[in-house]
Specification:
Elements (H helix, E strand, L loop, with lengths): L2 H6 L1 H6 L4 H10 L6 H9 L2 H11 L13 H8 L1 H23 L5 H21 L4 H10 L2 H9 L20 H9 L3 H11 L23 H16 L7 H14 L3 H22 L15 H11 L8 H17 L3 E7 L5 E7 L3 E8 L14 E5 L2 E8 L6 H37 L3 E6 L4 E4 L1 H7 L10 H9 L4 H9 L5 E6 L14 E10 L2 E10 L5 H9 L2 H8 L3 E5 L5 E4 L11 H4 L1 E2 L10 H5 L4 E6 L5 E11 L8 E8 L1 H15 L9 H18 L3 E9 L1 H8 L1 H18 L5 E7 L2 E7 L3 H18 L5 E8 L6 H17 L4 E5 L1
Parallel strand pairs: 20-21
Antiparallel strand pairs: 1-2, 1-5, 2-3, 4-5, 6-7, 6-10, 8-9, 9-10, 11-12, 11-16, 13-14, 14-15, 15-16, 17-19, 17-20, 18-19
């Protein structure tokens, strides 16, 4: 059966049609001023529909103070358009549900996506194009109707990529399969179906609802529908990675030019309306493990940053396990757990933790079931994409359902971070093996000529091994190769004008079995790396090189130029951006299109296309994904050059690595936020975060408080034992605060001198006081009572400003000091 057959068969197309009441309501929905009398007439024809409309009107979604008993009153309170929107939603569901149930299709996941996207589209349109808000709702309600109708009445017409569940979520390769099968995408097909049913044509945005890549090319109404479609898929877990939710929220901030708090408020409004609508329709929410909207943006950001700890971990898998263990302790306080991690060779390695022995490595195995687990029940998987990267097990019943959901969200971020960690490690090890496999000996020395690194080949040629690390290069050449260059090397290292030494040296000693010995070419030159002077030694046996190659070595060794050029990425492209040459680290890009493989930074405002080559635009920042999975930031400089003979022209693109610059920027940001002595947040950040958390507390109705204290006995030690002893005490107090507070929820600060403050979020009065006592006891124990604290703990109350809250905390701390020190005074 083909689509043409479907449209030409009256009986079959009738099965694919809406009831007349749905079409009548949709006709009213697209009118500038819908008629309440016409809407009421359609609704009253179906008593059950009237009951459902009034049920939804009186649901918590609208927050009415008095119950509405008739449609006329509902229209007065909510407006005709709102009643029309409710009626369309209910009639649409009622018209579709019997057909979907007859074909044994679980339509609830798709209905949830449809409802969320419709509510989100209306909310976005109220900000961008208010007069079209109800139309945005209607477009999202109808955008996937073709897929749902064909699923039940002509399933054979659905390409394989369109049969994955949920049906209305976009899957890889779906658009291409639709165009091949139907000559159009399902959005256009939905619009065609609607026109066949007599639905008005004012809903053109339906055909573009997945066109996120060209968002800026569309009008505001279509943008709202596109964003809402993608938003629903993100929040309801159609994307495996929660990172995509954060990335989409960043896109919303840009499109709406809104703050993070504005986006959080908009998100909360949509989620509340979505839950109330599902409740009124009698539809339950999906499993909490598959949705993200029940997590706050703050939680998503917190666990994202925790997951990003892993790619930078040094010390192998034990260090990874300890990092994850630290996260588990600070956020969930698990007393004991087992964790297995997938290794690069596909095996699994088990680590165990308890408070007595800490993190201990156990055995490895090819399967997780082969490992000696202490906890036998299956735990929570570390999964990124289709790959399982590990598993965490702990005592059953230790966490409540909400805590388990938060842990599962954290593990999703950790899985991504661990995958990136393995990719980074694999790349580094691959480079190390490649360096050892080179037929050229390589040694790197510091500015004083002391060996820092050397590969396997130079160990064979000159006897440099690990035991020679830190040894003088001059002694290496004299003892290993029989070449005396002490004076020449000393002058070379001291003279800024001398950059290169090139020497051919054939030791007089015979080769193996009396044959000809090695003849060595040495190239020693200076280079600057990360603002540090270095000396690079290249050593090659040239006994078998031709006379031509021998002569070339005197002029300039090709290998030296190659090594020098590898610091930047160098590619050449044709007029369309196709890469035909790339330097070593970018060889995998040859044959790809530069404008599809490299992506512009967010700050780029031009057109990312071959037109950039001719534009003469200055350096452009871009990034690409390296083979190991890491993201590499580059500053691209484009210049044109001619090829030999009649070959067409090309473009030279040089990419300068921005890693060092980004690291410096991060260092500057850190210095602006943190106290240099204690590594706690500084005075300025304390006040900024206090204002932010007070605003958040009032917006979310979640309690918060402040702990403020100074040190008892500190001045005496500072005066008698000196400032270095005082600084040591302050650093240790900083470590105590970092260890005792909850990471991501509490913010320890050095207020000034020996005064400290902790901003504590989402905490009750009892727990706030308990935390202050825990800090007091930790300080007392650490310094054996010679240094203690006098602390004030206060909770935010109605009418508090940052100044009054801090003043109350300071007053409570003063009362603790006056009462004899080493105590906490709590003030509600």
């Amino acid at each position: 059966m083909t689509l043409e057959t479907v449209f030409k068969s009256p009986h079959l197309f009738q099965r694919l049609s809406f009831p007349p009441a749905v079409v009548q309501l949709m006709e009213e929905a697209v009118k500038p001023e819908p008629s309440f009398d016409a809407i009421a007439e359609v609704i009253r024809l179906d008593p059950a529909m009237t009951t459902l409309v009034l049920k939804l009107v009186n649901s918590p979604a609208f927050g009415l103070s008095r119950k509405v008993m008739d449609l006329q009153r509902a229209a007065v309170v909510l407006g005709t358009r709102e009643i029309l929107k409710i009626a369309v939603t209910l009639s649409f569901q009622k018209g579709l549900q019997p057909q979907l149930e007859q074909c044994q299709y679980d339509f609830f996941p798709d209905w949830r996506l449809t409802i969320f996207s419709a509510i989100a589209a209306e909310s976005l349109a109220e900000l961008l194009t208010p007069e079209e808000a109800k139309k945005a709702y209607l477009c999202c309600l109808l955008k996937d109707v073709s897929l749902m109708m064909l699923r039940c009445s002509a399933a054979e017409e659905l390409p394989e990529a369109c049969q994955l569940e949920p049906l209305t979520a976009l899957h890889a390769g779906q658009h291409e399969a639709e165009e091949q099968a139907w000559g159009m995408r399902h959005g256009a097909l939905s619009q065609l179906f609607l026109s066949k049913w007599g639905v008005p044509q004012e809903l053109n945005c339906i055909r573009h609802h997945h066109d996120l890549d060209r968002l800026d090319d569309h009008d505001f109404l279509t943008q709202c529908v596109i964003l809402a479609t993608h938003w629903a898929e993100m929040e309801l877990g159609c994307s495996d990675s929660p990172f995509n939710v954060l990335r989409f929220e960043m896109m919303l901030k840009t499109v709406l030019q809104a703050s993070e708090d504005d986006i959080e408020s908009l998100r909360s409004t949509c989620i509340e309306a979505y839950r109330n609508t599902l409740s009124a329709l009698g539809i339950g929410e999906s499993d909490s493990s598959t949705r993200y909207y029940h997590h706050s943006l703050s939680s998503l950001q917190t666990y994202y940053f925790l997951g990003m700890d892993l790619p930078g971990v040094e010390g192998g898998l034990p260090a990874v396990a300890r990092t994850i263990g630290r996260h588990l302790k600070l956020n969930w306080d698990l007393p004991s757990w087992d964790l297995c991690l997938r290794t690069r060779d596909g095996q699994f390695r088990l680590f165990s933790f308890d408070r007595r022995q800490g993190v201990q490595a156990a055995e490895s195995g090819n399967r997780t079931n082969d490992l000696p687990w202490r906890f036998k029940r299956p735990g929570q998987l570390l999964r990124a994409g289709e790959t399982v990267w590990g598993e965490l097990r702990f005592e059953p019943g230790r966490l409540d359902p909400e805590e388990r959901d938060e842990l599962q969200l954290y593990l999703k971020f950790v899985s991504r971070g661990y995958r990136d960690y393995l990719g980074k490690t694999a790349v580094l090890e691959q480079k190390a093996h490649a360096l050892d496999d080179l037929p050229v000996g390589v040694a790197i020395c510091d500015g004083k000529g002391r060996i820092q690194q050397c590969n396997q080949r130079i160990a064979e040629l000159a006897g440099c091994g690990k035991k020679h690390i830190g040894r003088s290069l001059a002694l290496l050449l004299k003892d290993g190769a029989g070449l005396s260059m002490e004076k020449e090397l000393e002058e070379f290292l001291l003279s800024p004008s001398k950059r290169l030494i090139s020497r051919i040296w054939c030791p007089p000693s015979p080769g193996p079995e009396g044959g000809e010995g090695a003849c060595l070419h040495l190239s020693i030159h200076k280079r600057s790396y990360q603002d540090q002077g270095e000396v690079l030694l290249l050593m090659q046996d040239i006994a078998e090189l031709s006379r031509l190659e021998y002569k070339a070595l005197h002029e300039r060794d090709f290998l030296e130029r190659l090594v020098d050029s590898m610091r930047d990425m160098v590619i050449t492209v044709d007029d369309q951006g196709v890469i035909d040459f790339a330097s070593k680290d970018a060889k995998h890009l040859v044959g790809a299109n530069m404008f599809q493989t490299l992506h512009p930074a967010e700050s780029f405002t031009g057109k990312w296309s071959p037109e950039l080559l001719e534009s003469g635009q200055g350096p452009v920042e871009a990034y690409y994904t390296a083979p190991g999975g890491g993201r590499r930031a580059l500053e691209l400089v484009v210049s044109k050059f001619k090829r030999r003979g009649e070959e067409p022209g090309a473009w030279l693109v040089v990419g300068r690595d921005l890693t060092t610059i980004r690291r410096l920027e991060e260092k500057i940001r850190h210095q602006a936020m943190f106290d240099g002595l204690t590594n706690l947040y500084n005075h300025h950040q304390f006040h900024a975060m206090l204002q932010r958390e007070i605003d958040r507390s009032r917006r979310t109705s979640r309690p918060m408080g402040v702990i403020f204290f100074d040190l008892d006995g500190f001045k005496q030690i500072n005066d008698t034992r000196g400032h270095q002893a005082g600084d040591s005490i302050l650093r240790l107090v900083g470590e105590i605060l970092t260890h005792e507070v909850r990471q991501g929820m509490d913010f320890p600060c050095r207020y000034g001198g020996d005064e400290f403050g902790v901003i504590v979020t989402e905490i009750s009065s009892a727990n706030l006081n308990a935390m202050a006592e825990r800090i007091r006891l930790a300080v007392q124990e650490r310094f054996n009572g010679k240094v203690t604290i006098s602390a004030g703990a206060v909770q935010l109350v109605e009418g508090d400003t940052p100044e009054t809250l801090l003043r109350r905390a300071d007053t409570a701390a003063y009362q603790a000091k006056a009462a004899g020190t080493n105590r906490v005074v709590f003030s509600a």
